[in-house]
């Protein structure tokens, strides 16, 4: 069989904790030959009858620190592919077959700009003291050939292990969130799954991760399936309208509004179009301007308003007063000015906001 795209090695004192790596999505990737996984018991590198892997911290304090004399040789062996039966089948990571990306003509995923030696495997050290793991990391690491995870328990691993490992690895200390786990094993499951599912061929359909939450910096909105009415609850009508443009616009709006509601920090960093801003900030407004005896052509006014960011639903005239109702993200005085401009009236106008809410208090 040809060599897999990605080899993961995990070093832990609880190898059985990593069993889920072989199941479900990742198990399938292993069967397909896309992924290879080696799980290694750190104690295989421990000396003496007690196979001790830890010792009290220098300088005192609670807990235990994992010993460099055990970790050093373990990471040396795994970097060279000298550890464990699973590694035998992984022979050099030759790239002698067409990559799925070439076959499927998928644009290469971006890799963080860096001048480091990409021939070295990546050593990931899960720790709450690491840099936050993000979807961007998952994208980048899905292009790696060999990732080794060093799972620490107790108070961590002697820091010199990582200093020394720089000779053979690119070393990253990573955290999966602002909370503390007992050890790195669960974090490895999290990272391995996030990374592996981005390898082409692991998920059947490439589009399905391009639309993921986070890949455009926004959260995904809600999803619905059949039946259209369930327990008296209707799915949003737009989704069964057959109007794909409307469906896309609705989904974008849901995504923007959910992100604003639960992760405003993400929204601040997202690249938003004028349409996005409109969806987020537009509210019902009603504008009245004095047009005197000017001739007003509703169609032209509507077009001019749309250009200015004011979407008019209704334009009515009663003598000298023109009333426009619609939606805009503009400030109220700005909305008035825009309407006055559109009709060529320069004085006497006013805009009321949040009209829908004022009119229908439910
Ligand atoms: Cl990556 N490891 C551990 N042990 N605790 C964590 C973590 C990682 N991320 C958050 N808490």
TrEMBL record:
Domain tRNA methyltransferase TRMD/TRM10-type: 6-81, 118-268
Signal peptide residue numbers: none
InterPro entries: Alpha/beta_knot_MTases, tRNA_m1G_MeTrfase_C_sf, tRNA_m1G_MeTrfase_TrmD, tRNA_m1G_MTases_N, tRNA_MeTrfase_TRMD/TRM10
Main location: cytoplasm
Coiled coil ranges: none
Catalytic activity: guanosine(37) in tRNA + S-adenosyl-L-methionine = N(1)-methylguanosine(37) in tRNA + S-adenosyl-L-homocysteine + H(+)
Gene Ontology MF terms in the entry: tRNA (guanine(37)-N1)-methyltransferase activity
EC number of the protein: 2.1.1.228
Entry binding sites for S-adenosyl-L-methionine: 152, 176-181
Compartment(s) of residence: Cytoplasm
Membership in a protein family: Belongs to the RNA methyltransferase TrmD family.
PANTHER family: TRNA (GUANINE-N(1)-)-METHYLTRANSFERASE
Protein task: Specifically methylates guanosine-37 in various tRNAs.
Subunit and interaction comment: Homodimer.
Entry protein name: tRNA (guanine-N(1)-)-methyltransferase
Organism: Corynebacterium lujinxingii
């Amino acid at each position: 069989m040809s060599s897999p795209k990605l080899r993961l090695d995990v070093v832990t004192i609880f190898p059985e904790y990593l069993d889920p790596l072989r199941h479900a999505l990742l198990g399938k990737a292993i069967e397909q030959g896309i992924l290879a996984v080696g799980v290694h018991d750190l104690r295989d590198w421990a000396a003496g009858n007690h196979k001790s892997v830890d010792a009290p911290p220098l300088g005192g304090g609670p807990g235990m620190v994992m010993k460099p004399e055990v970790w050093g040789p373990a990471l040396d062996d795994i970097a060279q592919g000298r550890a464990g039966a699973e590694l035998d089948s992984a022979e050099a990571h030759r790239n002698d077959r067409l990559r799925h990306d070439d076959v499927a003509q998928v644009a290469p995923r971006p890799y963080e700009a860096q001048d480091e030696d990409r021939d070295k495997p990546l050593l990931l050290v899960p720790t709450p003291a690491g840099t936050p793991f993000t979807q961007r990391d998952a994208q980048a690491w899905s292009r790696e050939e060999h990732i080794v995870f060093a799972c620490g328990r107790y108070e961590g691993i002697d820091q010199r292990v990582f200093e020394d490992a720089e000779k053979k690895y690119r070393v990253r200390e990573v955290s999966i969130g602002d909370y503390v786990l007992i050890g790195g094993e669960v974090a490895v499951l999290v990272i391995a799954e996030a990374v592996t599912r981005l390898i082409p061929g692991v998920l059947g359909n490439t589009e399905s991760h391009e639309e993921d939450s986070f890949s455009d910096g926004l959260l995904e909105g809600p999803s619905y399936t059949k039946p259209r009415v369930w327990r008296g609850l209707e799915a949003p009508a737009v989704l069964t309208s057959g109007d794909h443009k409307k469906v896309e616009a609705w989904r974008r709006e849901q995504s923007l509004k959910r992100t604003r509601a639960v992760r405003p920090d993400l929204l601040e960093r997202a690249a938003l179009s004028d349409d996005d801003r409109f969806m987020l900030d537009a509210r019902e407004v009603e504008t009245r301007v004095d047009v005197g005896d000017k001739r007003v052509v509703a169609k032209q006014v509507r077009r001019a308003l749309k250009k200015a960011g004011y979407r008019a639903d209704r334009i009515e005239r009663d003598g000298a007063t023109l009333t426009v109702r619609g939606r805009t993200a503009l400030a109220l005085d700005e909305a008035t000015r825009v309407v006055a401009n559109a009709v060529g009236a320069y004085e006497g106008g006013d805009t009321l906001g949040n009209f829908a809410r004022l009119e229908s208090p439910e």
